[in-house]
Write a structure and sequence with these properties.
single chain; 209 residues; mainly alpha; Four Helix Bundle (Hemerythrin (Met), subunit A); two-stranded antiparallel ribbon; 7 helices; globular
């Protein structure tokens, strides 16, 4: 019989494997979307930090597995809370990507004509400017903690904060060229919803029923 501790480790390794596969699929989908965006006049913005973003996400998965293999499993309540947070992050990420549709890409895209940019104003964008980054922040902290990889969770969170500090202003500089984005999305909180935006979104949802 497999010990409970070993069983929990295997479950964690399986979760990491699923996330790794999902990241690979995302890259393939992103490339397809970028070709469609290019047909509309979109061009990928060259970002010196982008390779480090890839290293961060891939490195987090590897480091989490290695650290979890070297540590005893965390208390069950920690794994449950972290697992719940990861589930919320995944749900938010799926909602965000579904809202963006073919406009989503892992790269920042620039348009010579800002009117050619399709701006998402529904879904989570009703309450926050960058729901996908919020999902990533939660994920990078929660996933390692499921396996007790505390050092990885802290290191990944700090590294991600440094990356987003440079990435978000660059992305917003491009988005702000669109009048639709400036009027409908820019007033929202950058990463955390504001109470009045949540209230308005609730009213709009109730009115649509």
């Amino acid at each position: 019989m497999i010990p409970v501790a070993a069983h929990r480790q295997y479950v964690f390794f399986g979760i990491c494997a699923v996330v790794a596969i999902e990241r690979g699929v995302e890259l393939l989908v992103s490339r397809r979307h970028e070709r469609a965006l290019a047909a509309r006049g979109g061009a990928v913005v060259r970002e010196p930090l982008f390779p480090w973003m890839v290293v961060l996400h891939a490195g987090m998965l590897v480091a989490a597995v290695v650290e979890a293999a070297l540590r005893p499993p965390p208390p069950a309540w920690v794994a449950v809370v972290a697992g719940g947070a990861l589930a919320v992050a995944v749900a938010l990420r799926i909602w965000t990507l579904a809202t963006l549709g073919a406009s989503w890409s892992v790269h920042v895209t620039a348009f010579a004509d800002p009117r050619a940019r399709a701006v998402a104003t529904g879904g989570p964008y009703q309450v926050v400017r960058h729901p996908n980054y919020l999902a990533v922040i939660i994920e990078l902290a929660a996933l390692p903690l499921i396996g007790g990889a505390v050092v990885t969770a802290v290191a990944a969170t700090v590294a991600n904060a440094l990356v987003l500090r440079a990435r978000i202003p660059r992305e917003e500089a491009e988005l702000s060229r669109s009048a639709v984005w400036r009027e409908a999305v820019a007033p929202r909180g950058r990463l955390l919803p504001r109470w009045h935006d949540l209230a308005r979104a609730k009213v709009r949802t109730a009115g649509a029923r």
